[in-house]
Design a protein that fits this description.
The chain has helices at residues 89-92, 112-120, 153-163, 176-179, 184-198, 214-220, 246-253, 269-277, 302-311, 316-319, 325-330; strands spanning 10-21, 26-35, 38-44, 56-69, 71-76, 98-104, 126-132, 167-173, 202-205, 226-227, 239-240, 243-244, 257-258, 348-353, 358-361, 367-370, 373-380, 383-386. It is α/β, with parallel strands linked by helices.
């Protein structure tokens, strides 16, 4: 609840029973003081001798909450036009705790200028784009890369140069529902060529078919490229017989990264548990949240995806960096977001847990039980988006 103070030190103070800044390995009771759109002070466990009740124009207090930097979703579908997967980010992503989101291919070169003007520039959510190799993005009802002419290296490269920092990399999915009859090897090589032309990484979905096996695909990826949907249970999953495949370990050693991308078909509890037991943790945790998730119960979002990774065996001190500072660094925004350090953008989220364990389902309906996290408060650039109940 907001309270007014007569003498003002900060515009806004958010305090919580637990404050976690994974970028600096800080964890304890504390508060964050905000002026304008910047974090001015973060105090954890009473360091610097600062008071617990600092003076501010407004205060939000969550004694049972966990305060974190605004969450960063490395794979979702923020789009309001020209994407069959798109969801309005301020309505479905920001209010659920992710203040920054990377679009997985919602726009291609043809729609990129419109996407920048009508989505990126008009959203409170910070949106970056992994541009679709297909010039048509996700505007086609089927097979966005079913026509090789749409895999236009020059057009995609030019769009990235035009987009600058707003376009993080290139999205390419080699599965048959995306490619139709197109050759997956040719498609991947064209994506890599765009990456080479523009010094950008790839966000890659694997084939799920024996005509382009996982070890061959991984062998072509470069350091900094990202495999998404990494905990799926299909034929080219990263684990067999309870152990991570050698080709996956080798790819990681070369600098290839692995992202969750939960979605409707890409999170299997058996795979997740086996891989985590084997010591292989994802580099980033993401939702692949899109249109079919709207109205789901419980609502699919990044806090719920975190809950499932915890239920599968990850420790919380391994989970929080993978939704804050690590994806921030991959997006080239380290120090600006994903951190509570003074001077960073004032993006914050307060999460609370259900008081009891609830059933948590993977994409096949298999269940594990555990507490579920939800976003109780959200601050974006110093503006309170969701204030919750303190």
């Amino acid at each position: 609840m907001a309270t007014q103070g007569s003498a003002t030190m900060f515009d806004l103070v958010v305090q919580a029973g637990r404050v976690i800044d994974p970028s600096r390995s800080l964890d304890g009771q504390g508060w964050v003081g905000i002026r304008g759109d910047r974090i001015e002070t973060t105090i954890i466990d009473g360091d610097d001798g600062r008071p617990w009740n600092p003076s501010a124009s407004a205060t939000l207090d969550f004694p049972d909450g966990v305060l974190l930097p605004g969450l960063v979703d490395m794979h979702a579908h923020p789009a309001i036009e020209n994407s069959k997967y798109g969801i309005e980010p301020d309505t479905h992503i920001l209010v659920r705790g992710a203040t920054t989101v990377l679009s997985q291919g919602d726009a291609g070169a043809r729609h990129w200028p419109h996407y920048r003007t009508n989505l990126i520039n008009r959203s409170k959510t910070r949106v970056r784009l992994a541009i679709n190799l297909s010039t048509s993005g996700e505007s086609k009802a089927k097979h966005s890369l079913g026509d090789l002419a749409d895999a236009d290296v020059a057009a995609c490269s030019d769009a990235i140069r035009d987009g600058g920092d707003l376009i993080w990399g290139i999205a390419v999915n080699t599965a048959e529902p995306v490619l139709g009859n197109s050759d997956p090897r040719e498609i991947l090589q064209r994506a890599i060529q765009v990456g080479e032309n523009t010094s950008r990484p790839l966000l890659v979905g694997t084939r799920h078919a024996p005509d382009f096996p996982l070890d061959e695909l991984l062998g072509q990826l470069r350091s900094g490229d990202v495999i998404t949907y990494c905990f799926h249970g299909m034929s080219d999953r990263i684990e067999q017989d309870g152990h991570v495949l050698d080709c996956v370990w080798q790819a990681r050693e070369r600098g290839v990264l692995f992202d969750i991308g939960h979605g409707m078909g890409s999170f299997d509890f058996d795979v997740a548990e086996a891989v985590i037991r084997d010591g292989f943790l994802p580099d980033t945790i993401s939702t692949d949240q899109y249109r079919r998730h709207v109205g789901s119960r419980p609502q699919h979002d990044l806090p719920l995806t975190v809950s499932k990774l915890l239920a599968a065996g990850m420790e919380d001190n391994d989970v929080w960096p993978r939704v804050t500072n690590r994806p921030a660094e991959l997006l080239g925004l380290g120090g600006e977001i994903g951190t509570l350090q003074p001077g960073a953008c004032a993006d914050l989220v307060v999460l609370t847990q259900t008081p009891v364990a609830i059933p948590l389902q993977d994409v096949n309906g298999n269940e594990r039980t555990g507490p579920a996290w939800t976003a109780t408060a959200v601050v974006r650039g110093g503006e309170v988006i969701v204030s919750g109940s303190a």
